[in-house]
Amino acid sequence: MLRNFIKFAIRGVVGAIVDTSVLWILTTLFFHSYFTKYVLSPAISYELGIVVTYIICYFWIWNHRVHNDKSNFLRLFLVYNFALLISLVLKIGLLSVINELFHFHIVICNVIALCFSGIFSFFANEKYIFIKRG
Q1: Structural domain contains residue 134
Q2: Spatial distance between the Cα atoms of 62 and 91, rounded to a whole number of angstroms
Q3: Domain tally, the chain
Q4: Cα 133 to the chain's mean position, in Å?
Q5: Domain of 56?
């Protein structure tokens, strides 16, 4: 499990870079109202991060637990995506709370929130999504 956690942490850094970059682009160039900046932008950036991190999970971290076929890839992606909705709610809630309490820049709030939601995500992946076979 430690090896998977280390790989998951690396996956998390890649996902955070994607998530944060997209968030920065959206909040700097496109969205400026409270709702679009603090709810819609993080949701979009998080979903794009999910796609990237799922691919890493499927083909690198838990590749020994999957059936390398299109049907399995899509089914597990739907489960992965649905399970991480909880993590998304956690991230958005934390992002807003951190911003209100400390008035950090949204990107800093996002990185802190991602750390907490990432721990939750690891255990969801390890125990419920990419279940050991046999």
Answers
A1: no
A2: 24
A3: 1
A4: 25
A5: 2-129
Does residue 111 fall inside a structural domain?
yes
Q: Tokens representing 93?
A: 């809630």
Q: Which of 29, 43, 33 is nearest to 95 (CA)?
A: 43
How many other C-beta atoms can be found within 10 angstroms of the C-beta atom of residue 45? Answer: 22
What is the largest distance, in Å, between two alpha-carbon atoms of the chain? 51
Does residue 94 lie in a domain region? yes
Buried b (16+ CB within 10 A) or exposed e, 53-85: bbebbbeebbeebbeeeeeeeeebbeebeeebe
Q: Which residues of the chain have pLDDT under 70?
A: 133-134
pLDDT at 55: 95
pTM value is 0.73
Tokens standing for residue 27: 């909040």
Give the tokens for residue 34.
Answer: 């409270």
